[in-house]
Specification:
Layout (H helix, E strand, L loop, with lengths): L8 H25 L2 H54 L5 H84 L2 H13 L6 E5 L2 E2 L8 H9 L4 E2 L6 E3 L1 H17 L1
Parallel strand pairs: 1-4
Antiparallel strand pairs: 1-2, 3-4
Helix pairs in contact: 1-3, 1-6, 2-3
Length: 259
């Protein structure tokens, strides 16, 4: 296996800054997508939630319908018994039997009244549940329409950027193989610890990029000499001189335009 060529400090800095430019480009692409993937996922969860709620309400309606049918059957049975007991009263032998049958008739009449009351209550429940179903279905339709638009937006962005992102990720991996593992690990660690993902920044107006802390002139000269890798004592970022940064930006812009 061929031994990896050892890079000079300047070559390492250039390779690291190239890697930073590639990874920043990937960050830009992902920022364009922004919160869209999360919004789509949240909307999908909302749609599933509303669908589940509508199904539960519809199942509940079926249960109430079943209870109404049961009460109607009970009423028919009670009417049949009333008719039966009324017929039997015509053939009783004494008052005791007549009174006993009268109580049975009265009991069945009360059963009918109670069943009719329950049917009325169940009917009110059905009306209420239907109103909730209508409202929930409207909200479901709104969410589905919103989801359709958001998915369309996301798919359009993905169609524009997915190919470039894959190529850039491949380039990022390629550049990492050119740099020693220890430096790549440091770069990755710094990138993860800063908000904008900039692990390597140029000197701008006497301060490290994006910082208000001035770099002493002596340190600036050391950075410009490109003899050693220097980090910003405040942010921990690796520092490069503005000339090197500009040169690498021109180089990488040509690469990006080809992608």
């Amino acid at each position: 296996m061929a031994k990896k060529k050892e890079l000079t400090v300047e070559e390492r800095l250039r390779a690291l800054y190239d890697l930073q430019l590639i990874d920043s480009r990937i960050d830009e692409i992902r920022n364009v997508r922004g919160e869209l993937p999360l919004e789509v996922r949240d909307l999908e969860d909302d749609v599933e939630g509303f669908k589940l709620r509508v199904k539960k309400l519809q199942d509940s309606l079926s249960d109430v319908d079943g209870q109404i049918k049961s009460k109607k059957n009970l009423i028919e049975e009670a009417k049949g018994l009333i008719k039966k007991y009324s017929e039997q009263q015509k053939n009783v032998r004494n008052n005791r039997e007549f009174n006993s049958l009268s109580k049975e008739v009265e009991f069945q009449e009360l059963e009918i009244q109670l069943a009719e009351k329950h049917i009325k209550e169940f009917s009110a429940q059905i009306e209420q549940k239907n109103e909730v179903i209508i409202g929930t279905t409207e909200r479901l339709n709104e969410r589905e329409t919103h989801l359709k638009h958001k998915k369309s937006d996301l798919n359009a962005i993905l169609a524009e950027t997915e190919k470039e992102e894959k190529l850039l990720l491949s380039k990022s991996d390629d550049y990492k193989t050119k740099i020693e593992t220890r430096l790549v690990a440091s770069y990755t660690k710094i990138r993860a610890s800063v908000k904008n993902g900039l692990a390597i920044v140029p000197i701008e107006r006497g301060a490290s990029g994006g910082s208000y802390f001035t770099i002493p002139p002596q340190i600036q000269m050391e950075i410009a000499s490109r003899k050693k890798i220097i980090t910003d004592e405040h942010s921990g970022r690796i520092l490069v001189d503005a000339t090197l940064a500009d040169e690498q930006k021109v180089k990488m812009e040509k690469l990006f335009s080809k992608l």
